[in-house]
Structure formats: C-alpha cells, structure tokens
Amino acid sequence: MARGPAGAAAVLGPLLWGCALALQGGMLYPRESPSRERKELDGLWSFRADFSDNRRQGFEQQWYRTPLRESGPTLDMPVPSSFNDVGQDGRLRSFVGWVWYEREVTLPQRWTQDLGTRVVLRIGSAHYYAIVWVNGVHVAEHEGGHLPFEADVSKLVQSGPLSSCRITIAINNTLTPHTLPPGTILYQKDTSKYPKGYFVQNTHFDFFNYAGLHRPVLLYTTPTIYIDDITITTGMDQNTGLVNYKVFVQGSEHFQLEVRLLDEEGKVVAQGTGDQGQLQVPSAYLWWPYLMHEHPAYLYSLEVRLTAQTEAGPVSDFYALPVGIRTVAVTENQFLINGKPFYFHGVNKHEDADIRGKGFDWPLLVKDFNLLRWLGANSFRTSHYPYAEEVMQLCDRYGIVVIDESPGVGIVLTQSYSNVSLQHHLEVMEELVRRDKNHPAVVMWSVANEPASYLKPAGYYFKTLIAHTKDLDPSRPVTFVTNSNYEADLGVRLGSPHLFSSPLPVFWCSPDACSNALQGRTAPYVDVICVNSYYSWYQDYGHMEVIQLQLATQFEKWYRTYQKPIIQSEYGAETIAGFHQDPPLMFSEEYQKGLLEQYHLVLDQKRKEYVVGELIWNFADFMTDQSPQRAMGNKKGIFTRQRQPKGAAFLLRERYWKLANETRYHGSAVKSQCVGNSPFTF
Ligand code: GCB
C-alpha cells in the first residue's frame, strides 16, 4: 500500500556511516523542572480509519484542515493504545493504510503569550509512518514506529489570540521492504478468488503488527535558550567514579553551565562548570544489576543548570538526569559489569497485552517488573524493537540489565539489504542511541534479530551497521541475534578472523560460492554471539533426547570459530496453559518444563567456559498474525498473556535465584532483595 504524500518524504539522502551522530538535536526525556512544564495528552482522541480504496481520501479532502468530526464520523480512541483490538469492527483489526487521530488542547495562558517559552509537541511512538499538523499546519513527519519524535510548535501556538490548538496525526502502518521491520503488500489479482483491489500485508516476523499512538503524547516547555541534550559516559579509577558529561545547548552561544552530581541522599558529591568535563566521585557507589549486589541500581542525579543573559532579561534552564556509574566490557569468554563476570539470566519480552495491543500501560508495566523480580530475572532483551522510555527508566531503577534491540527483525528479502534500507537502519540506530545512551541498564545494542545473514549483501550491510553503531557509542558492545545453524551459515564456515590472517585454508566451495560466503559473513563484526535455537521444537519435534547433543554442538562450533562469549538469546516451547500430559507431549506444560531442563543441563556446563547468558523465549504469550501454526498467538510464554504463571515459571524461578547465588559479586546467599522499598523474596 503506497504511503501517499508521506512516501516521498521518506526518500533518503546519502549514506552517513563513519561520521558522528548525524541527527539534529537531542531527545531528552521531558521531565518537569523549575524551568519546564508538561501537559499529558493521554486519554480519548477522535479517530477515523480511511477505508477509501486508495486510502488517500483524507489527503484529497484535507482532513487536517478542519476538525475531524466535520469531514465524517469519528470514533473515540484511547491514547496510548493500538487501535486494532479496542473495537468491534473486524475490518479495523486488520486495517492497513492511513488512520487519523485528532485532539483539541487548551493551553495555559503563559505558554501562548510568553515568547520566552518554547512549546514542544512530543510523540512517544506512532506506528509506523506519521504526519503531524497543528491547527492545520504541517509540523512534523516521522518514519519508524518505536522511537519518539518532536516538533517545536511555539510559533503556531503563540501567533494569535487562541488559547487552544488542534493536533491532527495521520498514521500509516504499511510495511514495505525498506521499512523496519520490513514487510510486503501482496495484491491478489485473481478476481475469481478475491474482490477487485484486494491486498494483504505480509511480514516475516512473529508478532502482530499493532498500530496507532502506542506511547504517551505530550506537550512540554523549555525556555528559548535550553539544554538540548546531555551525553554521559562513566568509568572507575580505583574507588573513584568518573562521570564524563557533555551538554548541548540550543538558542544561544552565550551561556553558563553548572553541573552538580547528587547522591541518593541529595548530597552534592561532585560539581563542574562548562559544557563538558569529568566529575570525580571518591568512594563511588556503583550501579549493580539486580541480585548481583546487596545495593543494586544505585542512581546519582546529574543536575544541569543553564543561565544566560538576553535583552529581555536573564534566562535559566534546569534538567536533572539519573546517572548510574558502571562499566561494561567483553573478553574472549566473559561479559563484565564493573569488572565482574555477569551472567544474563533473563527473558525476552514483547510490548503486548489484551485489548491495548502495544499501547503503553503503567499497571501492566509495574506488573511485568514485579514478575521479573519474583522470577529472579536480572535482564531482558527488547525483542524485537525499542521499548517505551518509561520501561528503560524502570530498568535503571531496579537494576534490570537490557540488551537494547532495534526494530531490525524479519530482514530476509534481498531488497531489504538495499542502500535505502541500510540508510534507514543507520538512522534508526542513531535515534535509538540518542534516546537510550544514558541508561546504565543498557549494556549492549542489538542491531537486528535473525536476519538472512547468508544472503550476499548481508556482510557489507552488517559490517556498516555495526561500525556505525560503535561510532555512535564506543562505550557499549554491539551484537545482532542469529538463528543460523552453524553448518548452514556460510559466514560462519569461512568467517573466522583468524583464517584471514593465516594462509588461506583450502575451501570446499566454488569461487562464486566462496565470494558469496565471504560477503555474507556477519558474526566477525559482533562483540558477543547471540544465538537462538529451538531444538526439539522446530526440528526433531517431540524428541527432547536430542537437545543436549545438538545444543552442545551449537555452542562448541560457534565458540571454536570466533572465541567470543555466547548468549543463548532464545529457546523455548509453545505451551497452552492448562494442557497437561505425562509423559510430556508437545504443547503441554510438562513438555515446556522438560525442554527447558534439557537446555539447562548444557547451559550449566558451558557457562563455566564461555556461555554468558540465557534468555527464555518468551516472558509472556503474545499476539501474532493468524496462521495454522499459531493458536491465538505465540504461546511460548512462561506467563500467559494475562501474566499468570505456567509451570515453567516456577522452574525458572528456582533456577534464576540459584544462579544469582552462584554468580553474586560478594556477600552471603541471597534470599531476598530490596529495590527501593519493595522486597522480593525467594
Ligand atoms: C524466533 C524469533 C521470534 C519468534 C520465535 C518463535 O526465533 O526470533 O520472534 O517468536 O522464534 O516462537 O518462533
């Protein structure tokens, strides 16, 4: 489905790798402060899906020019929420094309009259392509459904006597080979089987393509001279914590900056001036992961105060950023946090729940974190796209370590390796790093999940993408998650960096195949090898007895080739809660437990050598496209979609707390852990 007027704007410029962050401006989370106010726009918006044949009626009739109710009927639509599951209209659930959201907002008088106030509209996420108008004037366009974008609307709201404004957002959920994630539209032309113009959206990933305004939308203010971005990196020198800061200011070149670091008691422990520098914190408290230390997730507060003189008088801006002091490093067989071996015992998640789809929801978020901590999970991967900023903030606060993944999932078509796709993927990594760079919980970037890394252009694509991500953030390792079987993966067969520095080995393949293989190799570029495998599920169905051999082979082959630490980034079994069968049969709770136990036997051997983590697939059941393989979604959760435990949750809980005790940094056995005021006891 063509994206219409917006499609043209998605045409992309020259490739940008190798240079510093190319995005204009920062994306600091909007926090209230003495100089900044917020106005949440969550609640009911007016909504209409454009069901016209070409889906462009809204543009042809310019629905953004007047209130939406004047151009036709509207529905009430909650924000944040996916639009798909809240209604009773089956056509809306599977709708592909443009939908229109609108909200009238009354603004505080100062915002519309004080020209020293900057008013910004921020959209946490709009899946997938969004165009925004304020009072009928185009203010922003954004491609990508999982990262925030903003528009400075000061001039518009300050230009007349109005004390309200009308925000219109058109969103298109169409996925093409060049979007992230990619997809294709299949037009069915056989009129004996399908009505004229019939098309469906096809995707190559295993979750439902929910769409809409998924995260909070808000207006916030800053002064016109303001703190636009802050970049923090941290380190340790003996017992002294090092906080390197860089502050970016917009609106003037003449300003003063004061920076103070406060501990959890509010005591100033270090201070500096100017737009960059290093703060030194003697006897610093480190940010430790949950269950790794008796006081995990220690957060300082970096207070940045800007002052400037203008003709209209003094201006000041204030922003407080939570800061965790910690280091991350990778050796040949270890993942180190604060110099100590860290073992990921955690989960893969999805942003997914009944009714709200991918809509952000505080009760759901708090429940999920309570379950994670009950489980003894110390980490998760944001499979398969960046999660809401509020999720990342809770990870910082609770010490839940994050592998932060881009929406690069389902990259399996050759077209999705084109320069247009690569350019977009590079920009998405820029947006992701810009948003999440200051979270201590984020310890690694994942640029993709299960791409067809055997295709010819994959080598160049991933080499470029990973190099760019490392340029953007040299302080964190980078990975992508592979499901390649060692033997089937051309890249692995030929890709060892050691092979290239020694005399060329005798290859079994033809010159053409060799050159394909060399270009297809991708694993040499990653710092940690993340492997997904589903032994006795997608192969050798029902034969749990082969798991140990196959898993041990998988680990050995990968490790012997690359000498890099390995994470079992997915494993699991489809399980329908309440199905019981002993001896175990597939889909029963007993089979899920049995399969996990077989994996654990091998993980327990290999974690003594080079395996540095295990992430179960999946935390909870989640919705997918309809298919004969999926019974109302993917059921590999250890919790149901309603967050109730299956038997495997208890098994994993036992294991994770045991692992925590074995891999804990110091102190006696851990029976419980307090984070903030909430105790979690095994
Ligand atoms: C995978 C994918 C994940 C799927 C899972 C499954 O390898 O990474 O997105 O949901 O397998 O259950 O098939």
Question: Approximately how much helix is present in the residues?
Answer: 10-25%
Bound molecules: (2S,3S,4S,5R)-3,4,5-trihydroxy-6-oxo-oxane-2-carboxylic acid
Record the strand order, biggest sheet.
Answer: 25-26-27-28-29-30-31-32
Gyration radius, in Å:
26 Å
- Number of helix segments? 15
Mean pLDDT over all positions:
91
Query: Unreliable stretches, pLDDT < 50, 5 or more residues?
Result: 2-20, 489-520
| Beta-strand proportion | 25-35%
Shape: globular
Q: Tell me how many strands there are.
A: 34
| Measured distance between first and last alpha carbons | 51 Å
The profile of the biggest β sheet is:
8 strands, parallel, barrel
Given helix and strand content, the structural type is alpha+beta
How do the strands and helices of this protein lay out in sequence?
Elements lengths: L4 H5 L28 E3 L2 E7 L7 H4 L14 E5 L10 H4 L4 E9 L2 H5 L3 E7 L2 E2 L1 E6 L2 E7 L5 E4 L1 H4 L6 E9 L10 E5 L11 E5 L8 E2 L3 E7 L2 E12 L2 E11 L5 E7 L5 E6 L2 E6 L18 E11 L2 E11 L4 E3 L4 E3 L2 E2 L2 E5 L13 H14 L3 E3 L7 H10 L2 E5 L13 H18 L5 E8 L8 H15 L5 E5 L7 H5 L2 H5 L9 H10 L8 E4 L14 H16 L3 E5 L18 H18 L4 E6 L30 H17 L8 E4 L2 E4 L1
Helix pairs in contact: 8-9, 13-14, 14-15
Features:
682 residues; alpha+beta; 8-stranded parallel barrel; 6-stranded antiparallel β-sheet; 22% helix; 29% strand; globular; binds (2S,3S,4S,5R)-3,4,5-trihydroxy-6-oxo-oxane-2-carboxylic acid
